[in-house]
């Protein structure tokens, strides 16, 4: 391979919302792969709420993306040229390859995937990090038991759609919190949620009182802010609050809004626990196998939101997450 | 027994600080005990931060004290007259007998104690609810392990002094947060804490960086507010935050200040968990025995703050807790 490699690099550190000028659109040379390496063309790029955190220069579970570096992203590539024994042209490979058209890799962290078993975007969604996040967050951190009441926020998102459906597989009552009547209808009519709450028009606290009359056993939080407080006010005894994310707070210019109702952890003998999905890497294969089985059996419906474009569309596409414009897993498919 | 029984009853529901007019000072008749009952004279009344929560009319782990009711309080009484087979005149008994000079009881929830084994106030402190709270909160909820780093706020209080000393018995590094140089000196010089932080004059976050360079494994929180946030910013991986109380927030007229740094639970794969000591009642005897052993061996020093007065001094004495004027367990001894 030779030619041009269009890339999106981090140009500045955003304060609050990410601005167009925080990105640099660069055309770099597309180098041929050296010994022990392979090259590939990017097919699908994952867009994740966690990306906002990677832009801040502060200690977290991963180092921040450096200024001038290609933006970190998971993607599916198709191998075009290889000097690596394990990868051959035509293979599809998932890895953290960044927001760029062409990739050269030594294979570390790269996993071959089979497009005949699942559509390629699914390897970035239900069978990728969002799937692992939902699975381990709900079952391991949340310690979900059959018959419990589960509430998930960001319910129409990549992780939320899976959390709710896994909980249904496990015989639980599931209430999703999402923004807008279309998303809410999708949750109950298509994905089998028992109830959905539209946080844009409903009083979430009152709605949870209605839909979870005996309290919430597991609250899976993707959003933080007022919705977290509403859920804390409705915890059942010995409830578990799974802290997965806080998308309502990621673009704050001021401090994160802490949960004012956290003392209900005391009254309800409850716990709030965070996790990072990468810690479960040794068990990813086991989880993916179980999820694939549920998908094959029609017990879990995969929701993907595919935007077609070029890497130059990455910044605008990323903003869709923070405006709540995606349904299910958001991916950018390179034309 | 016949005569007068001076009582403190709840007259109004405070908003923010408790005001003198929220209490009614009443002289009721001191009735003789009927069949199956005993009567006693109150010797020591317990004063606890949790009392503030009992005054609010909202659902909690106990029903609120009703308007016009004798204020709920733990106390030690001396039996003066008995028609109950298990209690005889001269016995000392601990129970939730309320803020009053004379008590009539059917014996439910009453426990005989032996003043030759421990001073009577100790049955309201290290061998009473504060002892149970420290013991189960630290060892069970906090799941403390030898060699870990423990931080406790409200460290000079009834629970805090015990949490730190139990952690030392368990071979841990202990940092106490308290208000004022005298309390801090007491923690390190008398009680064996490894370090003390004076939140009134020090930058707590910077001090924790110094004293807990490898992070906090267990943070036992009695205060909430900014100090909780400072501790959350210093959590070690897989840390446990024990939510015992939030005295800094109990007199708020506005919403409780939620912990802005709660997302470090995610980064640090940590958990924050609440508990109510009464849940451990079946194990109180076991804990009291172990605590009594440590006290007898000189491994735990009991700190008690005895105010001598009458039941009419209860309202003023209670305020000492919220002004941080007590060291160790605060009790009112009736003259």
From TrEMBL, chains A, B:
Pfam family, one: ADH_zinc_N
GO function terms (MF aspect): oxidoreductase activity, acting on the CH-CH group of donors, NAD or NADP as acceptor
Protein's UniProt keywords contain Oxidoreductase: yes
Segment forming the signal sequence: none
Domain Enoyl reductase (ER): 16-332
Classification via InterPro entries: ADH-like_C (IPR013149), ADH_N_2 (IPR041694), ER (IPR020843), GroES-like_sf (IPR011032), MDR_fam (IPR045010), NAD(P)-bd_dom_sf (IPR036291)
Keyword Disulfide bond: no
Keywords, comma-separated and alphabetical: Oxidoreductase
PANTHER family noted in UniProt: PROSTAGLANDIN REDUCTASE, PROSTAGLANDIN REDUCTASE 1
Protein name per its UniProtKB record: NADP-dependent oxidoreductase
Species the sequence originates in: Kitasatospora camelliae
The organism's taxonomic lineage, starting at the top: Bacteria, Bacillati, Actinomycetota, Actinomycetes, Kitasatosporales
């Amino acid at each position: 391979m030779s030619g041009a490699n269009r890339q999106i690099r981090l140009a500045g550190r955003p304060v609050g919302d990410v601005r167009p000028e925080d990105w640099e659109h660069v055309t770099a040379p597309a180098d041929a792969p050296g010994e022990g390496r392979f090259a590939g063309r990017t097919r699908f790029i994952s867009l994740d709420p966690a990306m906002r955190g990677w832009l801040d220069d502060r200690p977290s579970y991963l180092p921040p993306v450096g200024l001038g570096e290609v933006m970190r992203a998971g993607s599916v590539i198709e191998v075009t040229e290889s000097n690596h024994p394990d990868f051959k042209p035509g293979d599809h490979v998932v890895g953290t390859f960044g927001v760029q058209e062409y990739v050269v890799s030594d294979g570390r962290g790269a996993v071959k995937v089979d497009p005949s078993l699942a559509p390629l975007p699914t390897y970035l969604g239900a069978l990728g990090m969002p799937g692992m996040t939902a699975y381990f967050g709900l079952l391991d951190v949340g310690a979900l038991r059959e018959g419990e009441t589960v509430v998930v926020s960001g319910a129409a998102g990549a992780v939320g759609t899976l959390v709710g459906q896994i909980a249904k597989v496990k015989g639980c009552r599931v209430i999703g919190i999402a923004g807008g009547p279309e998303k809410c209808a999708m949750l109950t009519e298509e994905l089998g949620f028992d109830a959905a709450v539209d946080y844009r028009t409903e009083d979430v606290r009152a709605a949870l009182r209605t839909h979870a009359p005996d309290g919430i056993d597991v609250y899976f939080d993707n959003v933080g802010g007022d919705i977290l407080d509403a859920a804390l006010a409705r915890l059942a005894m010995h409830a578990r609050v799974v802290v997965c994310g806080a998308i309502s707070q990621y673009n704050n210019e001021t401090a994160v809004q802490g949960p004012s109702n956290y003392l209900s952890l005391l009254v309800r003998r409850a716990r709030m626990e965070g996790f990072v999905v990468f810690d479960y890497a040794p068990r990813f294969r086991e989880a993916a196998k179980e999820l694939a089985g549920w998908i094959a059996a029609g017990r879990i419906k995969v929701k993907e939101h595919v935007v077609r474009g070029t890497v130059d569309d990455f910044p605008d596409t990323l903003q869709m997450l923070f405006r709540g414009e995606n349904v299910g897993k958001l991916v950018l498919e390179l034309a």
